[in-house]
Amino acid sequence: MKRLLHIATTTAVALVCAVSLATAEDLREQALEVFRPLPSTIPAVKDNRITTEKIELGKALFFDPRLSASGVFSCNSCHNLATGGDDNLETSIGHGWQRGPRNAPTVLNAVLNEAQFWDGRAEDLKAQAKGPVQASVEMANTPDQVVATLKSMPLYVAWFEAAFPDEDDPVTFDNMAKAIEAFEATLITPAPFDAYLNGDDAALTDLEKRGLALFMDKGCAACHSGVNVGGHGYYPFGLIEKPGADILPENDRGRFEVTKTVDDSYVFRASPLRNIAVTAPYFHSGRVWDLGVAVAIMGTAQLGEELDDEEVEAIVAFLGSLTGTMPAIAYPVLPPETATTPRPRAELQ
Amino acid sequence: MKRLLHIATTTAVALVCAVSLATAEDLREQALEVFRPLPSTIPAVKDNRITTEKIELGKALFFDPRLSASGVFSCNSCHNLATGGDDNLETSIGHGWQRGPRNAPTVLNAVLNEAQFWDGRAEDLKAQAKGPVQASVEMANTPDQVVATLKSMPLYVAWFEAAFPDEDDPVTFDNMAKAIEAFEATLITPAPFDAYLNGDDAALTDLEKRGLALFMDKGCAACHSGVNVGGHGYYPFGLIEKPGADILPENDRGRFEVTKTVDDSYVFRASPLRNIAVTAPYFHSGRVWDLGVAVAIMGTAQLGEELDDEEVEAIVAFLGSLTGTMPAIAYPVLPPETATTPRPRAELQ
């Protein structure tokens, strides 16, 4: 029996190798019809010309906890650039130790998503950035307080003037969001999969290539496609078979909250899968910690397909090839407060 | 009247200039008897040889929120290197939105303090680092959980092996603390005052020099001396005149909690004053936001001296010359979690 198993395994491995080697060019061509490699330069964004001054200002704002009412949370608290651009929590903890409603998505490569948030309710990152700053369970601040805070620090005023040189009153809530978007546009993480798409066969292992082939053949790539392997298009979670309420809580109806259309019940944006291996836990509910389990759930829920262990393993290996290299980030030194800086307010509103 | 005032001011300014120019060498010599400039190399620490590997590991640990039970707080949360090495809060907010009992001191140059914490209850930074990780109102974790967390990530294990190459079982709570201490030893911030002590007359303005002279003449330097302009020696807060309970809360008896000696009631370590201008609010209670007000309170409480506005202004100017340059810090990329990494626990114990 053991011997038989061994032969079977060897044959399977040989078969896989033969397949992946024989179809090396085909596989890449097929992949290039579905995916795109990351750009080699900072992506341009709509209505927001990206300059060095804007990026540097945005970086300071991204790391500044004084954008929150309590002075405790910065953008980086939940979108931590040290841990894959998210916080590794089921759902984030915010103002007053309140829980956010959904798992914090990674900020890495988010500039390339077609819309932001799990329900796509923000068109782009400059619209997104204004949300958490004001959300009562996150940073719990107000635009007026944020502007008062920023205007109280002469160094911030000078940085806004440099970033928005043509404006009479550059320290605004909108410009805060634009600067943060400019910084976030630099958070592009080229991965082995990009090297593969760009022509380097050795960038993926045979197992990763088999996972890529499965990812396309099984239908995962129907929703998780494009430059971010997801991040555009909305789909019902449980297209074929609804997962249990432990994974798909009944009280969060997804895009329905945005469109108020019954058809959009439990519809969510297809998650972008870059860096997915380092951004557990998974799904909008953050209820699944194991990537293999998440892949298997997607198989049954979205494709009506029971993936076997070997298929799951290969797909997980492919997803690992989407883990990219972080850009170098010099931790900023922020402007010091002054006598007129509003004081932190930790109380619940 | 206006004219008279003008003449008086001009005369005062001329007098000040004359004094500071005439006694330039005397002032520096007097200062060098009381203060020392920062060292030009990373200070050696007791029982902890500092290596590049240890510093890099310590930096990762310092920024890692997974050292806390909730996964929300890192060392950097309360000792934020972007904002003077503290959190700019009256007292820190920790696990479960609980308030810490005392204002978080800056971690900058803390390696040069003779003891750590406001009551000096930790001998050095490797002893200090273990406190907040376990404090129920701060990171609320346990040594066992921390070690389990670190051991669950192969990259951390490799980093500990590199940092502690002679040890069989290098991933320990003690070694975590040693690595953090090694990183913190690099957080040295040379300031204009150091350049002045090192012989550069132009490094301080005349007002700052007048403030320095006053700081020594009035007696401030009796407690705030040495390389960190404080940070060693214990003194009763309210030596001459006890401040009100708004500034000196009655239920916090300071070093008494450590020594249980009545003489140590309301005794605190003399605060190190490097970077004091960027680390409001002030005192162990964090109740005073304005540095000038803090200086005036010190005058009456510790020296029995009503400092006038001009004296306060000069001393505040001198204290500003203690604001140093931060070392460049590349924001770390932390090891990704694995299936065996303990999950975040946000509940109150």
Automatic annotation (TrEMBL), chains A, B:
Binds 2 heme groups per subunit. Heme c 2 binds at residues 220, 223-224, 298. GO terms for cellular component: periplasmic space. InterPro entries: Cyt_c-like_dom (IPR009056), Cyt_c-like_dom_sf (IPR036909), Cytochrome_c_Peroxidase/MauG (IPR051395), Di-haem_cyt_c_peroxidsae (IPR004852), MauG/Cytc_peroxidase (IPR026259). Binds 2 heme groups. Keywords: Electron transport, Heme, Iron, Metal-binding, Oxidoreductase, Periplasm, Peroxidase, Signal, Transport. Pfam families: CCP_MauG, Cytochrom_C. It is found in: Periplasm. Heme c 1 binds at residues 75, 78-79, 95. Its cofactor is heme. One of its GO terms (molecular function) is metal ion binding. Residues 1-24 form the signal peptide. Residues 53-184, 206-323 form the Cytochrome c domain. This is Cytochrome c peroxidase. It comes from Tepidamorphus gemmatus.
